[in-house]
Amino acid sequence: MTSPDRITKTTCPYCGVGCTLELHLRGDFIHRVTSPFESVVNHGNLCVKGRFGYDFIYSPKRVTAPMMRKTPQRPGHRTQAFDLSEWREVSWDEALDHVADRLVEIYRRDGSDAMAVYSCAKATNEDNYLLQKLWRALFRTNNVDHCTRLCHAASVTALLKSLGTTAMSNTAAEVLKSDVFICTGTNTTENHPIIALQMKKAIIERGAKLIVIDPRRIELCDLATLWLPLKPGTNVVVFGAMAHVILKEKLYNQAFIDARTEGFDAFAASMEPFTPEYAEAISGVDRNLIVAAARLYASAQNGAIFWGMGISQLSQGTASALGLIHLALLTGHIGREGTGLNPLRGQNNVQGASDAGAMPFHYPGYMEVVKDENAEKWERAWNIEPGGLSRKRGLTTTEILANAKPGGVRSLYIMGENPMMTEPNLNVTRHHMEQLEFLVAQDVFINESGAFADVFLPATSWAEKDGTFTNTDRRVQRVRKALEPRGQARPDWQILCDLAGRLEQRLGRPSTAGWIYAKPEEVFREMANVATMLKGVTYARLEQVGLQYPVPDEDHPGTPFLFAESFPAGRGKFFPLEYIPIAEPPDDEYPFILTTGRLLEHWHGGSMTRNSQLDVLYPEARFEIHPIDAAQLSLKTSDVVRVSSRRGTVVLRANVTEKTTPGVVFIPMHFVEAASNLLTIDVLDAQAKIPEFKACAVNVRIASESELTNPGAVTERGRY
Ligand code: SF4
Question: What is the pTM of this model?
Fold first, then answer.
């Protein structure tokens, strides 16, 4: 084996587990990735993405010079350009001057509400902090959001309402201390593989009992004591029925409820109709399974709940997450090691981007923008005149695009996101993108959204910059530069500081807000000085090991689990709940429920994995359908099918499998050739504003091979 000339320790750029990577380098090339056995998060284990998914940084499709469109783009007539002949390479100065000129022109003409930015859950905490600071401090808008809106916004909303906090309460590895745990709405082996390894160990070596509540027969079902195969979108009913059983059989923890919660009586009354029989009729889950699950969880010594986007990506996502919170509050399975409420965060730094304030309702550290005392703190930190920061909540990702019209949002700056793959109802998203007056994309590749842009700014990959990511269990970890940037690419934080200086000059704003940083460490220090949950986190400490916030001072060791004594909200709050069905139930015309999700081999909109060797492992989208449904359609594996909803159509190959349940079909979200979000519905959860990705009605027709020519693709080119 070739020996490296250096090894750089860093953090995986894919999922929220946050595994430690060792990049083995010879010259300019990573030739191998390993992980040290002593790594706290993953103990030397890596999944296929972490071990083999790094080569996208060498892709010839990567764009490493600033580019501007040759043909001026007009609102309503904006087009996509994937071919580089439609762009001209420009200097950084020309690109940034043009961006600054156009943004200031639009801001002066139309004001703060015309400005919006998508931040990036793949970028570092420092990048995200600076991006939200720039739009808030210079354009005085809170129109700042990122893909947390599309994954766990409902979990965040529910946790804030009930407990006053947003993140996982416990450390994922504490599952080894649980005797019972629930996995619901999470295909953990595919989406958080290393956490799934720990779950398997808990079951096989420690005898823990697993309850899976999921419409799909995920791999963990093989090890589960109980599997409750509910219909998509019926979580509130199933969790409500479990609460009903716990209440009726007096399995709740009265002492915990008395000492630590409020709202119990009204909540208990609201659970009265949620009998197991009622839940069976709505959800399709055998009433005896619901009773057994309630008894098993309630009688545990240490019961934990892990959930994913099958809970949050629903129009009743907040209610679904509250249903889980109620179970923990009823039984007192929170505030101790091996218990807790654990929403498994998707992207590598979606937790950190949220913590860093890349959200429309909160400054860094979850300080609400509508409260004067919070705004005043950041005005002092950023040297802004009193009252200068906006106290108005900003628009969410989906709302930003829906408001892309005259009188609404006119300029959008996208750092590292790809709404043309990740928003619901992509035909409508395309229409919104076309309406923008000015669009900037800052990324590694020109993706489906960047192809609409006026200006493309080439950013470095994670391997070419320093900073920090925060993983799903609140652990801040170092990202270390292993390589020089390719071509003219620059780290996001440097691009933003360079742009901010130009904007300050044009806006005539005092330059004392400070956009001159020698290194990301200085950016982190500025954030942590006000966002006190990070106060004790320093780069020097992170050199040794990641730290789990809250870390209130530099002597504090970090906090593996929360709520030992109290909740940030004081008492944990119960809320009465009612069941509201999904927005678009199946009917005669569209008889199947489509649910969407991720695969082990790929990631999100695919911009990294589909440009890596991982694409060879799983090169095309597959439509999953249960054998019973397939038989009725005379459909077999590898047949081509046309799947349509009221919003669009995709054509792809079928996979007949018992991984799904009768009446429920599945399409992964990564493939532009059969983009699942052409089908999904853009109805939102009223509180969290998260779309209902996990349930919409579709029909299925057998199609011919010739139809596999991409009729529903969101781009003309078929793939990246
Ligand atoms: Fe990376 Fe997640 Fe895989 Fe770990 S489990 S190697 S963090 S993708």
Answer: 0.95
